[in-house]
């Protein structure tokens, strides 16, 4: 059996080497499914620049901003109109997979594209103000257990969106009724964090990259990180939710999908290119600058990772009553 | 015909619009953790607000404007048709061709000299394409009909 | 005082030859980009970010370039607003009211000059205010919670009656229409789709550019088509280009008040330039408009929103740099650029990186000054745009509008929407519905609804939360005063109506 697997994997490696003859001809395009300034835009622009700097493509990468429907417009455009484009990558994150799982892209599903790879990740955190009475995650959970309205949550996404999901999952893991906790959506993490500082909300379920400025200034306290293991830097002392006995992780990968009709040769080239990029010093630098953690998956491994994630999120959303 | 007819018609149309707007809002149901206000309240308030204002307009209309004569309406309709046609032609014909045609027809509707209108339209389209596609890196359509050229 | 030496250092950096050159390039490019309605500075800055990385420019120099583009495009936007009645931003919608009226009276030159001067004035006042209050201001921004924001929106709408023409009902309908347009799309709170007809393209709502270009540019094209058919000539007499010292003195206090209002509103994250220019305009109309000349080409109607808008851009640096909350698309891109330079916004930024903060302030000021120096001499040239033959000028305006609208979502669907709004806008103009309240409703409506719902979510449905803080109560009192005071004042004072020869009515 082992020999057979070995043979299969060798065949795979050789065939992928053979297939890797592909090289993009013409201009490579990266679609950021949002306006300039956000995470998807950053993903496209920094990776586009690196592709060019490292000489992996011969012409500068064209970045197209295609906002609309929380990424849905870009998704529909890729599936319907550019399904066989070998020179196209589209920025993605769990905002994409969560919306797909919750059916917010109309009739489209995660099967309609191919998931190329992720080059880094951000992790969810549970933050409170520095003068908050909640010193530990247990304090907060206990307070919620006594009175679910005692600590209101303000996040940067709509009801059922990423920031809300973190709280719902946490409450579920703690054996609370997730829907009883007050959640107030703001326009982005910055506004939610400002409301936390103003005392209008008591909990901010943000991402590690969003809170570094306020953390440094001592204005907020992080009760837990929603990562598989402790993060580095200023967050090194903060326990993971898992250590505290709540089995909750929220990984915000930064990656790409490509058209489902992309040729296997092209897909193989792109997967390898992702690996080259990820291993480069320049990317490590860009990652550090943007407070992203190390996380790498590419090719078929990533494709199945995402498809499983969408399944999980759909199950979770159904369990929570978000979707029927 | 009353001098104040325009406002009365506007009032009636707005009243119909407000009613439709308000009735549509009834279908905005949240099946998961609704906030105390919900997505319906604001549209309802707006519908009532506009409904009352349009009733006022029906009963207290202003002097109507002088509407343009038919010949002018004809030209306005031509302009609007050209806009709609442009929206449908832009992707198939590509920016340069579609815009040249649209600009030239608009210039003619504005009674520009024919030959100069066409020349100016072509020149302006080219300049705009260069400026936006290369200068500002906006993805303007190149045209599906040219796809055989391999562009 | 330490602040002065830091600012002096900032200026020392900003005044290096390379940086002055960058400021010049930025202002020049920005003016060009800004003149194209709806394109705005975002694209310009987004494209230049990788260029600045590639050139290896230090952070301060890149920021100077961006600030130049920002200011340049604001001014370029004023050019298309004043000359062609095509505003590209919500704050310019207010400038359009009197700016375009001045153009119709053949006074485009002074309107453009005033726009540049008022912008510079607003920039100057707000730089001084930044020096004096910077550390305190992030505290002021934090105090604004959902209830306070809701009260602020009510206040903004309460001043609306002064924008109304003869018929208040029509202004109310325009506002309601704008607010209704704002409800199209996914409900920001519950993610329920409203008025989208299942069309994915409408899920993000009506884009500001599509609506504004439709209501202003396209309806203007139709309107002028009608006027030209009647053989009417829009006055395009070039006339005097500079403002007179009398006009400057007349507008001085307007600019002072506009700058102060703009600065303090600009500090509130998310509110920004729109409310600032709107409130300063309505305030001035009530305070100084004794001859009912606002809306008919009063130069103070240009001075107020332009100074407020520029001052608010400086004020907005506070939430951007200390809270990491961008107030507009442009500042969002600048935030992205800062992050790329390894500068993390936060409360410690001013303390830890004073050279960045004060360098930014200085560079914005240099950008402002450069704008004045570059554009004042060019006003005469800009005004000549009006002497381009109409058969070419109006189609050209239409073509640029198409590009702007198409570029929003890369979608021809928006062109159809734009055409529809153009027709509605034309009908509204003919029947005397004001257009500016539509845009204000569109921009401020979502803020109003969201904050009301946030406030009530937090209180669990208890309405008293709206009046629970002294700050909120204070704003409510302002709103009530602005609603009822004018009628009371009018009842007890006799306003002498003077017809001045300069500001005579025009129709």
pLDDT averaged over residues of chain C: 82
Helix content of chain B: 55-70%
Q: By helix and strand content of chain C, what is the structural category? A: mainly alpha
Kindly report how far apart the N and C termini of chain B lie.
59 Å
Beta-strand residue fraction of chain B: under 5%
Order of helices and strands of chain C: HHHHHHHHEEHHHHHHHHHHHHH
Proportion in β-strands of chain C: under 5%
Q: Return the average pLDDT of chain B rounded to an integer.
A: 87
Count of distinct strands of chain B? 0
Helix content of chain C: over 70%
Total count of strands of chain C? 2
Distance between the termini of chain C: 55 Å
The backbone outline of chain B, from C-alpha atoms, is flat
Number of domains of chain B: 2
Rg result of chain C: 22 Å
User: Could you give the order of the helices and strands of chain B?
Assistant: HHHHH
Write the layout of secondary structure elements.
The complex is a heterotrimer of chains A (about 325), B (about 150) and C (about 500).
Chain A: H1 2-19, E1 29-32, H2 39-53, E2 62-65, H3 72-81, E3 88-92, H4 94-101, E4 113-129, H5 137-146, E5 153-155, H6 162-173, E6 183-185, H7 189-197, H8 212-216, E7 220-226, E8 251-259, H9 264-279, H10 281-289, E9 297-298, H11 299-320
Parallel strand pairs in A: 1-2, 1-3, 5-6
Antiparallel strand pairs in A: 3-8, 4-7, 4-8, 4-9
Helix pairs in contact in A: 1-9, 4-11
Chain B: H1 5-25, H2 38-59, H3 70-93, H4 95-109, H5 114-135
Chain C: H1 2-14, H2 17-35, H3 40-55, H4 59-84, H5 90-104, H6 108-142, H7 146-158, H8 168-182, E1 185-186, E2 193-194, H9 208-229, H10 245-266, H11 272-288, H12 300-315, H13 317-323, H14 329-340, H15 349-352, H16 354-375, H17 379-383, H18 390-409, H19 413-430, H20 436-459, H21 470-492
Antiparallel strand pairs in C: 1-2
Helix pairs in contact in C: 1-16, 2-4, 2-16, 3-4, 3-14, 4-5, 4-6, 4-14, 4-16, 5-6, 5-11, 5-12, 5-20, 6-10, 6-12, 6-13, 6-16, 7-20, 7-21, 8-20, 9-18, 9-19, 10-11, 10-12, 11-12, 18-19
